[in-house]
Amino acid sequence: MAWALREHPNLNVLINNAGIQRRIDLRAGEEALTGGDAEISTNLTAVLLPVLQSRPAAAVVNVGSGLGIVPVAAIPVYSATKAALHAYTRCLRHQLRGTSVRVFDVLPPAVDTELDQGARAARGETARTVSPEAVAEAFWQAWCRDQPVVAVGMVKVLLCMSRLAPDFIFTKLNSLVKL
Ligand SMILES: NC(=O)c1ccc[n+]([C@@H]2O[C@H](COP(=O)([O-])OP(=O)(O)OC[C@H]3O[C@@H](n4cnc5c(N)ncnc54)[C@H](OP(=O)(O)O)[C@@H]3O)[C@@H](O)[C@H]2O)c1
């Protein structure tokens, strides 16, 4: 944060985008969780609120995931960190209501990036991804409309189904992803 403020003294928008995703077989015991701390610190606890409140207009943009709405069992720590980030972002927005800081919760579906490529290819997920540009465009439209929760593509369905039929959508999504 010190570096960012030094290099960009007028910084007023923070996009928390860094993320790690790991396939973990919890049945394999403690060893399978090695490295889980990095996943938690990068996806969740690295989210900082800097001195944005002193700016006349500012924003925090947290990049979550559809898996924070409906978890995938093969990716347990990732799903948990994104669920936690979703809750955290909601709390942050509530605490900052009435201030100059807007808080966005971006919830992408599977996106065609480098994220966990090996495991994703093994699961045959590559065909179901959207482009990073499509996510950026959806976010920009939401920014212009001042719409704080940005459910992109399939995540709109996940959000709706997680309220109407949570067990059904969990089972359905997990039937598509090999454990
Ligand atoms: N791809 C998807 O399907 C998908 C779906 C939903 C949400 N998301 C979310 O979108 C965000 C971006 O991911 P992506 O898909 O673009 O994945 P990506 O291509 O793997 O990029 C992840 C980025 O995070 C950075 N990063 C990882 N650990 C870091 C750390 N400890 N400190 C600083 N930077 C770190 C990486 O930097 P280096 O390259 O320098 O390591 C990389 O630039 C993540 O939050 C991810 O959870 C992705």
UniProtKB/TrEMBL annotation:
Lineage, opening ranks: Bacteria, Pseudomonadati, Bacteroidota, Cytophagia, Cytophagales
Assigned protein family: Belongs to the short-chain dehydrogenases/reductases (SDR) family.
InterPro entries, sorted: NAD(P)-bd_dom_sf (IPR036291), Sc_DH/Rdtase_CS (IPR020904), SDR_fam (IPR002347)
Pfam families: adh_short
Protein name: Lipoteichoic acid biosynthesis protein
One of the record's GO molecular function terms: oxidoreductase activity
Keyword Oxidoreductase assigned: yes
Keyword entries, A-Z: Oxidoreductase
PROSITE patterns: ADH_SHORT
SUPFAM superfamilies, per database record: NAD(P)-binding Rossmann-fold domains
Domain of life: Bacteria
GO cellular component, one term: membrane
Tagged with keyword Oxidoreductase: yes
